[in-house]
Amino acid sequence: MWIPTENEKYGVVLASFRGTVQHGLPLEIGDTVQLLEKCEGWYRGFVLKNPNAKGIFPCSYIYLKNAHIKNKGQFETVIPMEDSVITEMTSTLRDWGAMWKRLYVVKSAQHTHKNEGDLFHRLWHVMNEILDLRRQVLVGHLTNDRMRDVKHHITARLDWGNEQLCLDLVPRREFSMVDPDEISVTELFKLMEHRHRKKETPVPASTHHLFVHMKSLMSFSLGEELEVFFHIYDSRENRPLSERFFVRLNKNGVPKSPEKTERQCTLFVDLGSSDLRKDVYIVVHIIRIGRMGAGEKKNLCSVQYRRPFGCAVVSIADLLTADSKDDHLLKVYACNTESEWHQIHESIIRKISSRYNLAGSNTGLAVSLQLLHGDIEQLRREYMVLFTRGVSITKKLGFSDIIMPGDMRNDLYITLEKGEFEKGGKSVARNVEITVYVLDIDGQVMKSYVAAGSGEPGGDEYHSFVLYHNNSPRWAEQIKLPIPVDMFRGSHVRFEFRHCSTKDKGEKKLFGYSFVPLMQEDGRTLPDGTHELIIHKCEENANLQDSARYLKLPFSKANLPGNNQAVKGVKESFWITSFLCSTKLTQNGDMLDLLKWRAHPERINDSLSKLKEIDGSEIVKFLQDTLDTLFGILDESSQRYGLKVFDCLVHIINLLQDSKFQHFKPVMDTYIESHFAGALSYRDLIKVLKWYVDRIIDAEHQDHIQQVLKASEYIFKYIVQSRRLFALATGGQNEEEFRCCVHELFMSIRFFLSQENKGTSPVTQTQAVFLRTFPAVYGELLKIFTVKEVAGFVKETLGSLPATAHAECPLEAVKLQCMAKTVESQLYVNPDSRCTLLPVVLRLLQAHMQEQRDLVMCAHILTSMLSLIRKDDSVTTEPAVSEEVDLIVESLLGLLLQTILEITNRPQPAGTNMRLQFQDVTGEFVACLLALLRQMTDKHYQQLLQAFTSKDDLRDFLLQIFTVFRILIRPEMFPKDWTVMRLVTNNVIITTVLYLSDALRKNFLNEKFDYKVWDSYFYLSVIFINQPCLQLESFSPSKRKKILEKYGDMRVMMGCEIFSMWQNLGEHKLNFIPAMIGPFLEVTLVPQPDLRNVMIPIFHDMMDWEQRRSGNFKQVEAKLIDKLDSLMSEGKGDETYRELFNSIIPLFGPYPSLLKKIERETWRESGISLIATVTRLMERLLDYRDCMKLGEVDGKKIGCTVSLLNFYKTELNKEEMYIRYIHKLYDLHLKAQNYTEASYTLLLYDELLEWSERPLREFLNYPMQSEWQRKEYLHLTIVQNFDRGKCWENGIILCRELADQYDSYYDYRNLSKMRMMEASLYDKIMDQQRLEPEFFRVGFYGKKFPFFLRNKEFVCRGHDYERLEAFQQRMLNEFPHAIAMQHVNQPDQTIYQAEAQYLQIYAVSPIPESQDVLQRDGVPDNIKSFYKVNHIWRFRYDRPFHKGTKDKENEFKSLWVERTTLTLVQSLPGISRWFEVDKRELVEVSPLENAIEVIENKNLQLRTLITQCQSRQMQNINPLTMCLNGVIDAAVNGGLARYQEAFFVKDYVMNHPEDGEKIGRLRELMFEQAHILEYGLAVHEKFVPQDMKPLHKKLVDQFHVMKSSLGIQEFPAYVRASPVHFNGSPRNSCRNSVPNILSLDGARVVARRSPLTYPSVNRYSSSSLSSQASNEVSNITGQSESSDEVFNMQPSPSTSSLSSNHSASPNVTSSAPSSARGSPQLQDKHKHSRENSCLSPRERPVSAIFPTPLDPAQVKAPYQNSRYQFKKASPNQIGDTILPRSDPNLSAPDKVRPTFSSWSLDSVKEVNNTQFSDTVGKFLSPPVPPRPPYSGSSAKSIRSQSPGPMSRSPQKSSMPPFTPSPTECQSAGLVSNSPVLSGSYSSGISSLSRCSVSEASGTEATAGDHPAHLAATMPNSVSSGSDELIRRENKTPPPYSVYERTNPRRPVPLPHSLSIPPNADPPALPPKPHQIRTSSMKLDQASDSRRADGVPHVPRPRPLPRKVSQL
Length: 2007
Known about the structure:
The protein has 2007 residues and is α+β, with helices and mostly antiparallel strands.
C-alpha cells in the first residue's frame, strides 16, 4: 500500500533507472527527485526538472537528503537543507551544462569561431574547478577561514560564468543568495548595484610592492665573487627610498645559495602610488671581491678587497607598461673614473655618458622584476607560493604612507658618505677601507647587528669597498643597524680606518678611528642628518680594546666645545648620514619634555604649546603616554591648563583624522575604553566646549573653533566615559547637574545653529562643520540618555536650523548629509526614535525634492529609510510601520513620481562619470518607489485615493503613475542581467495596477469617461505583457519554474485585467477602435495559450462594435493587417497563432475560436473573409519571418518576399506595404548580387510613379522630393543595375526614356550624359562576353514546405556557370530536410499530402519569344544571345518513350517523344530568379515527326555554318569541318538508312496513309541535306588549309558513298538549276549588311526565308561535331582543343547539347533510327531505373535512365572504320562513356566504349552520336530547288491547317512532295516551340536549331512577301516583328505591369517606345531594345492588345489606388 512520505521528501539519483516497469519513471544519475509516497522498497515521485511526469522507482536508487518543506500538502515545495552556496552551485552547474553542450555545437558548426571556442574551453575548466571546490565544501573538513576563501572563490567563479553566458546577476550577501522577498527593494537594489559595480570597476590599490628575483650576471671576464646591491632611488630628490637588498654571487655569476630563495628574492614593500613614477629607479650596484686591480696577475697577496665593478638602473615606470612577469636583462656600466663611483647611478640616469661606459660588450644582469598591488596580507593570500618558498622583505626608508598601530620597527640606517685623509707620509694617496662595529654599553661588539642590507643575515662587522689611491674617497654606502630598543642606551658605532697596501703581503694597516654614540644623555637618539666625525689617530689595534678610554673624547666636530681649537683644526674628517626609523625611540626633545612633565613642572606651558609643532608620527608613537600626560595635567591643575590641554586634545584628535594616522583611531578608542581614568574631566571638557560654542557668533577667526567642533565626536566620547567612570565611582551622584550641563551645551549649540547668515560667512561654515560631526555624537549620548531623550536632542538641534536657506547655500547640502548620517545611525534604527525624527527628515527631503536639488543625497536618505521599514515589518511593530508608510506616502509619493519623470526625461549628461551617477540616482529613486508601493496595503491605497479632493487631481496622479510604470518597464531601466530586479518591479507594478484599476472604473466611466487615462492604462498593460523579462518561454526550465513558483505568470494576470476592464467600457469601446487593435494584437502574439484565449474575444468585440458604428470593419481590417506585418517582421507570433484566426481549429480554453464567434453574427460573411485574408497573410508572414532568420541570402528568402509582395498588391491592395516589400526584395537581390532581378524589382516602384512635379514626402531612404526627381533617380539606379547584371538592352530602353525627358526640358547636359551612357551600353553588348544561364524546373512537394512553395512547380534561372548538379546541391542546402526525387514523372497525391519535403529538379530549355531577331542573318551572336534567354515565358522538356511493340532491329519505328511545355506566370528574368508554372501542356511527337525535326535542325545548322564560313565570320574552318564530317560519316555508317528502313517501306506507307505528306517532307529534307552537304564541301574546299586536305578528300569520297547509298546519282534538274540561297529576310531589301555568298564566285543572291534563315536559338554545341572525324581534324591540325573551343566560342560555356540546359531533358531518346543493340529496350530489372537521379540533360545522358549492363559483345573497339583513336578521358567521363546510346548509326559494339576520349564527358557522348549523318547524302534527297514566291495565308490560316491548335504533328500540306522547296513549306505546327532533341538522341544532328518557328514563320512569310503597298497599310505592331504576335496563348499579363503607361500627365513627348505611328513603314532594322520594351520586358498589358489568336485584348486597369503622393 502506498503511504505518503513524512521525512523522506528529497533525494538524489545514484544510478540511472530505465523505468521499464509499469508506471516506472526513467531517472538519470544526478537528477534530484521529490518523493511523494512509499511502498515496499519503491518510491513514487517526480524529477524536479519535470514535475508533471510522476512515476515509481526503487528506493535503492535514491540518496536521501534533509529538506525543508513549504506549503505541506498537494502543492508542497521542498527546499534542501544544505549550504545555500551548494544549492546555487548545483543548479547553476546544471544550467551551464546544457549551455556548454550548445557551445560545443556552435563551435563545431562555425569551425571554431575564436571567442566561442575559447569560452567553451574556459567554461569547461571553471566547471571542473567549481566541482572540485564543491567537493571540498561538502566534505566539511575546512577551517572557517579556508571555508570563507573557498566560498569566495566559488561565488567569483559562478559570477564569471553567469556573465560570460549572459545569465542573470545573482544578488548575494555573505556568499549566499538573497531572497528578494525577504529584504527591502532598496536593499536589493544596493546589493545588485554593488555586485554590478564590483564587476565594472576594481578599486585601484594604494599600496604597491616590487618583487625582485636575482638570476645571474652574464660576463666573460668574471673569475671573482660579486656582491650585488639593489635599492630604489628617487632621482628627483637624489635620495634612496628603500634600504638595500644584498645578493652574493659566486665566480660564475650566479647566486651563492641557490637553495635559499630568500637570499635571491625580495619584496620591496610599501611603495606609495606617488613612488610609481618615471623618475623613480631601481639601482643596482655591483662590487667585486678580489685583487685591487681587476687585471692584476696573481701574486703572493691573498688579501681580498671589495672593489667597484659596475652599475645598472631601470625605471619603475617601465615595469608598469611591460608584461608583469618579464625577465629583464640590464646593461651594466662601469665608471670611467673611480672617484665618481658614488654617483655613477645619477650619471647613468642623466645620461652623462662621459662618466661611464659599458662594463663589457656582453655583460648583463638577468633579473626578474614584477610589480604587485594591494596590502601585504592580501599578497600573502594571493601569492602563497612566493611567501612559503621564502622571500626577504626590503623595507622602505621611513614609514609607509599609512602607519599601523601594531607595527614594530627599530632600524638605524648609517650611510658612509666620504672622508678627508692626509697622505700619512706616503708619496701616493692611500687606499682606505672602513670597518664598522656596533658596541654595547659594556664596550662589547654586538653580534650580527651590522647588515649590508636585507637578503643576507647581519654580521659582526662591515667592510667598506676600497677606492684606489684616493685621500678623499666618497663611498655613499648604506648600512643597516637593527639594534633592539633596550640595547640602544649606551651603545655606540665605531669606524676604523685602514690603509690597504698592494705590496708584499697586502696587509691592512690601521691609522685612525671615529665613533658616534647612538643615544644622548637626555634619552634622545642620534638626530637624523649628516654628521662630521673626528678622526682620532691610532695605529695599534690594542688601543681600541677599551672603549671607555675613547668614549670620553669628543666624536663630532659639531659638538666640540669652543676652546678645543686643536681638534677643530685637524684636516682629517669623516662624514656619515644617520636615519632612524623607530616606533619606540624619539629624537624629539619637546616630546620627551612633555612626557616628563612632572620632572619639570615649570616647562608644562611650553611643552603644551610645542605639542602642535611636533611631527604627527612622533605623537602617535607615544599616543597613550601623551594622553595620560594631558589628562594628568588636567586633573592636577584644570584651572590653569584646562584650555591648553583641551586644545592639545583637539590637536591630537584631529591628527588622527589624517589618512596617514587614521588607523590609530582604534588605539584611541581602546584607550578610552580601557585606560582612560579621568573621572572628573567631563566637567572641564563640557565647560571648555560650551565656552567655545558660545564665542562662535562673535569670534572673528573661526578656524580654531572649527577644529574644536571637528573633534566633537571624541570630545563627547571622553565626556561620556568620564561621566560613566564618575557615576561608577560615586554611585551616580551629580546626575542632575550633568544633565543640566548637557542641556545647556545643546542650548548653546541650537542658538549658534539658528543664526541665519549669508552662504559664505564664517559662521555658516562653522555650522556646516558641526553638522558634519554631529551624527557621530548620537551613539555616545545613547550610552547615558534614553532613546527618546537623544531623539529629542537631535530633533530640536536639527529643527533649530534656519528653514529658508538659499539654494546655493553650502549649508543645504551639509544638512542633507547630516540627515543621511542620522538615518543611517543606530539612533534611527530604533522605532521609538523613528517616529520622533521622521517628520524632521521628511520635511527636509520634501523641500529638496520639490526644487530638484541634491537628488543623489535625497535618494540615499530615502533608500536608508525604506530599508529599515522592511526589516521591522513584523507583527509587533505593524501599527508603527503602517504609520510611517502613511507619513512617507503622504509626503513623498507624488514627489517621487515627479522626480523620476523629470530625471528620465532630462537629456543625459555627456561625461561618463556623470552619466553613471545619473543612472544610479534614477535607479535609487525607482527602488525607493517600489519599496514604498510594496509596503502599501489596502488601507494605504484607500487613504491615498481618498486624499484626492478633485477628479482632476486623481486623473493627474493616475496618468503620472502609469507613465512612471511605463518608464520602469523600459529595457534600459536596469542592466540586462538584472532579471531579479525586473521581476520584483513587475510584481509591484501589477499589484499597484490591480488597486488602481478600481479607481479607474469608479471614477472615469460612463459620463465621467476620460479617454486619456484609459488609453494610458491599456498602453501600460500592453507594454507590461510584452516585456522580454516576462516571456517565460525563452527561459531555461529551471528559471521558468522558479519564476512561476514565486510570481506566477504575470502576463496572464494582466491579460485578465485588460479583458475585465474592456468589458466595463461598454459603448466607450468605440473610442479605442482602431487605435488599440495594434497593441492588443501584439499581446495575442505572445505564445501563452491562456493569454490568447483571454485576448481574442476582444477582437470579436471590436469587429462587432465597428460593424454597428459604420456598417463594416474596414478600419479594423486595415489596422490589423498593418500591425500584423510589423509584428511578424519583428519575429513575434507562431503557427498556433494562425489557428486562432483560423476557421477549423477550436481553441482550447473557455472561448471558442474567433471564427466560431463570428459565425453567429449577422456580418459573418465579411468577418469570415477577413479571417481568411488574415490567415493567408499570416501564412506568408510566418514563412517570411522564418526565412529571414536564416543567415545568407538564398532563393527561399527572395521567393518568400515575392509571394508577400504579390499578396499585398493583388489581394490586400496596400500600396505602401507593397512598396516597402519591393525595397526589401531589392535589398535582398543586391545582397545576392542578382542585379538584373534587382532592376526588375525596382521597376515595380518606378512604374507606380509618373513624370510629374507632384511633391512626395520623405519615405524609406528617399528624401522629400518631386515625383519627377524620384522617378529620375529610380531610372538611373535601375540602369546602373541592369548594367551590372549585363542586361544592357533593358538599360537602353530606360536611357532613351530618360533622354526624352531631358530633351523635353532642354536639359542638354544630362541629355548628353544619357546618350553617352546609352552608347556605352551598345558598346558593351558588342564587346563583352555574356554567359547564357541554364534553366531548371523545380517541384516542391509535401506539406513541410513553406506555404509559398508547397505543392507548386517553378522554373528557376541558374547562376553563371551553374550546372544541374550544382543547382541541385544548392537547393538541397537551402532545404536540408528535403528528399530529391529520382524521376521526372508528376508525383501523386500521397507525395502532395506527405509530412515531408520532396524536391524534383530537372533542366528545361527556353522557348524564346523574340524570333524576329533570332531569325535574321547578319545579326551578331552577342545580340542574339540576349534574346535566346531573356523575356522567356515558356520552357520545354522532352521525354522519349516507346509506343507499341519495339522493333529490335530498328527502334526508331516506335520511338515517340513526350514534349512538355511549361508556361510561367511571369517571364524570366523578372523580379525573382524563379517563377511559378502557370500552365503545362503535353504533346506527343510521332517517330516520323521526330525524324523530320532532327534532319531539319541539322540542315539549319549546316547552312548557318556555311554562311558564316562564306562571310568570314569564322576565325577558322574547324567547326564546319567537324559538322560535315559528323553528318557524312554517320550517313556512311548507315545513319539515314534507318529512317529509310523505318518510314519509306511499303508496310509503313500502307499502315499510315495519313503520313504521306510527312514522308514526302522527310524525303525532301534528305535530298536537301545531300545538296547542302555538296555545296558545303565546295565551300570547304575553297577555305580548307593545306594540312587538312587529306581529310577533305576523305569527306568527298565518303559523300559519294553516301549519295549512292541514298540512291542519288545526280540531283534533279530543279535542284541543280540554282544553288540554295542562304539569305532571305523580309527586310533584306533594306538591310543586307553581310553579303551572303553561296555561289563560289561570290554573287549576291536575295532569297526567300528558309529554315537556314532561322539560326538556332540554342547555343552551338559540339554534340554532332565531336565525331570520329573531328578527332581526325584535331589530329591533323594539332588543334584538338582549339577547334573544339572555336566552335564553342558562342556565349554559352556549354560544350554539348547534352550538357546544355537548353538541350532537351535527359530522358529524350534519339529520334534518329538506331540499331537494335542500342535500343533503350531494357531488361526487366532495369525497367524502372528511368527514375534516375536528378536529371540533367547535360550530365545525365539517356543511358542514365536506361542503363544497360555491359556485356562482352558490346566491348569491342567502336568505330571500326575509324583510323583515329580517342585520347585519354577525364575522370568524370567514366560511367557515361560506357552507356548505350540510342544513336541510329552505331552498331552494337560501337555503342559501348570503355576507352576514354580526350573530349569532355559531353563530347564523348556526342561522338557516339554523330556518325549517322554520313549516310544521309547517300539517301534519296534531290537537289534543293529555289523557293518560289509564296503568298500564302496569314499565320492564322496556316495554324488552322494543323491537326489541332496545340498539336505538334506536322501540318498537312496540299503541295506536291517535291515541287516546293523544303524550306518554304515549314510547318507551323511541327517546328513550333520544339527544341531539337538533345545531343545524345539527335543522331549526330546538333540541337542548335531549336527555334520556335511556328507562328513566326507563317507570319513573317506573310509580312515579308507582301508587296510593299500592302505592307505599308499593315499595322505597325504586325510589321515591326514577330514578337508582338507570338504572344503566349491565353496568358494573362502579370498583376502589375512594369511598363504601364495609361495616363501620362503632361504633354511631354513620349519615348519612341510608346508612340508608334499607325501607318509607319515597316522598319528595316531588327527591333531595337526600346521598341521591344513593351513586349520584351514582358509586363505591358496594353501592348499585348493583339494576340496570336487575333482576339484583341482589353488592357486591365491598374489595381492599385494612387497613393504615391504620400510616398
